[in-house]
Specification:
Largest sheet: 3 strands, parallel
Strand order of the largest sheet: 3-4-5
Shape: globular
Distance between the termini: 30 Å
Number of strands: 5
Number of helices: 6
Structural class: alpha/beta
């Protein structure tokens, strides 16, 4: 579908992994990102290239942060991450429409953050925005665990609210109402 050349290039991961990242990571990556796109383009891909913007204000092209400006200018399709509630998702989609390229949300759906299928998918459909959810089945990827699991591991217990995943390992839905909703949104409902 597309090549995500660099995921969250200016994310220093400070809250997750401590001071393991270089203090000047954003500057280093800002210099390397155009080269990464050039290397990817030299392979003559059939797929469009992108690098998802994930924070900041994208409403005015003249005031973009340097990394977001580079990401948007280098990308064939605009991709972004948003784990906010529906009103924030819609605001960001409207900001990105002005760049005149297809838009794909490559990360969303975080139940504890009020980013849910029922809240986000109708907006994505309204604006013809692709939406990719990280998790699918509770298992090795552990995407049902929330961000705070880096500081307080959920060993031997499940979090009070799952983060991403849709199904338990046995195939049973985490929330049957979500599966019904997704089927309806995708035209796969048997109703």
């Amino acid at each position: 579908m597309a090549w995500d050349v660099w995921n969250e290039p200016d994310n220093t991961n400070g809250s997750s992994y401590g001071p393991a990242e270089p203090l000047n990571k954003a500057q280093l990556v800002l210099a390397l990102l155009p080269k990464a796109f050039s290397w990817a383009r030299s392979a003559k891909p059939e797929q469009p290239l992108t690098s998802g913007v994930w924070h900041g204000d994208w409403s005015d092209p003249a005031n973009l942060e340097p990394m977001a400006k580079e990401q948007i200018n280098l990308s064939d399709v605009i991709s972004f991450h948003n784990y906010g509630p529906p009103n924030d998702f819609e605001k960001r989609v409207k900001w990105l429409e002005q760049y005149g390229r297809p838009v794909i949300c490559t990360e969303y759906m975080a139940r504890p953050e009020k980013s849910t299928f029922q809240g986000i998918l109708p907006i994505a459909k309204k604006y013809k925005v692709g939406a990719i959810n990280w998790g699918f089945v509770e298992g090795k990827t552990q995407t049902y665990l929330p961000w705070d699991s880096w500081q307080q591991p959920y060993v031997g217990r499940s979090p009070p609210v799952w983060f991403h995943d849709i199904f338990h390992e046995n195939g049973a839905p985490y929330l049957p109402s979500e599966v019904t909703f997704i089927r309806k949104m995708t035209g796969k409902s048997s109703e």
